[in-house]
Amino acid sequence: MKDDNRLRFARDALVFAGIMALAIALSMALSGLHNDNNPFATPLFILAVALVARLTDGYLWGIAASLVGTFCVNYMFTYPFWQFDVTLTGYPLTFLMMLVVSVIISALTTQIKRQEQLRFEMEREKMHANLLRAIAHDIRTPLASIMGASSALKAQALEPADREALLDGIDRDAQWLVRVTENLLSVTRFTGGDVALTKTDEVLEEIVGSAILKYRRAPDALPVQVTQPEQILIVPMDATLIEQVLINLFDNVSAHGKTATRIWLDIACAPGSVTLRVEDDGVGIPTQLLPGILDGSARHDMQARSDDRRSMGIGLSVCRTIVRAHGGDMKVGSSSHGGAAVSFYLPFSEEYNGQ
Question: Which residues have C-beta within 8 Å of that of residue 335, sequence separation ≥ 6?
Fold first, then answer.
């Protein structure tokens, strides 16, 4: 904790020194255009104060920038130059007003940052609550199914076909519970404080192939058709998490697509990013549910419309959290094949990928 505080202090000090030095340098350069008082100095230093307050923590650096800016304008850019003089008519009021405005800007900017942090905390807690509610609702049915099937296997002499059906049901429900557990573990990484991903350069084609291979192990897996660029794409990511995102998207088609017969995965490059789009030919997502589908708020509406016990709606909010932690984002919509479409993008280096 002490090391973190020292790093933040050092960073803030460098930001403060750099911005104030830049303001001084620009003011001196603009002074060469005028033989009298520099008319640009005051707004430049007020802008510098706003930037310092926005890019540093707390009130201290913003107020310090206000004091330094006021002194510099008086001493360096107001006649008599290179002298600190507040005795001339109007100067004390001018400098007092500049100081008051600068302090207000600093205070307001700091307050805005705190409000942004509070909003982030509220969204994080909302996602956490949605996850716990989803787990509590969904986990009971597959557990009851597993217990019932295991009891039947122990208590009765069953035909081979019936025995195989029960074992398949246990395996299917157990795999779903594993996925739910993986989602839960992923969310805990993003609800306990600052997110610290360990990203490494990965070949995207390999991550996609691994995700498809694991998805195909499910009994209800659908064929996945991949369209991708010819060049090899190397993208910085946490490979395990992005692979989980893809598996969750495939699983959602199996769980909610109903009439879906195929999944399409389209990979496309744009300047500085790569987009992965998962589409299907199923029933799609009702338009009224689209606004809340990614934050979990539409989950209960989805459950009211479907008796599917293995609802994975919460998986989309987890997926979006993972993608955002990578610097990307996710959106949902309609597919050209008639079903649903979920796409997300990840930033990557064009130069490293030879573009």
Answer: 264, 279, 280, 281, 284, 341
The pLDDT of residue 209? 94
Q: Is residue 146 part of a domain?
A: no
Question: What's the token pair of residue 13?
Answer: 């000090």
At 204, which CATH number? 3.30.565.10
Distances (CA, A) of 199 to 193, 195, 231: 18, 12, 21
CB atoms within 10 A of CB 335: 20
Q: Please give the residue range of the domain that contains residue 93.
A: 2-117
Flag whether the pTM goes above 0.90: no
Q: Which residues of 2-19 are buried (b: 16+ CB within 10 A; e: fewer)?
A: eeeeeeeeeebeebbeeb
Give one DSSP letter per residue of 288-352, joined into a string: GGGGGTTTTTTHHHHHHH---TT--HHHHHHHHHHHHHTT-EEEEEE-TTSSEEEEEEEE--TTT
Peptide bond before residue 229 is cis, with ω within 30 degrees of 0: no
Question: What are 330's strand-pairing partners?
Answer: 344
Which residues lie closer than 8 Å to 138 by C-beta, 6 or more apart? 180, 309, 310, 311
Nearest to 275 by CA among 344, 225, 328: 344
User: Within a domain: residue 106?
Assistant: yes
CB 279 within 8 Å of CB 337: yes
Q: How many domains does the chain have?
A: 2
Which among 102, 117, 132 is the end of a domain?
117
| 20 and 112 inside one domain | yes
- Cα 338 to Cα 19, 285, 302, distances in angstroms: 53, 10, 19
In a domain, 180, yes or no: no
Are 245 and 323 contacting, i.e. CB atoms less than 8 angstroms apart?
Answer: yes
Secondary structure class of 353 (helix, strand, coil): coil
Residues 99 and 207 in one domain: no
User: What stretch of H or E contains 224?
Assistant: strand 224-227
The model's pLDDT over 266-296, given as tens digits with 9 standing for 90+, comes to: 999 988 899 999 999 998 888 777 777 776 6
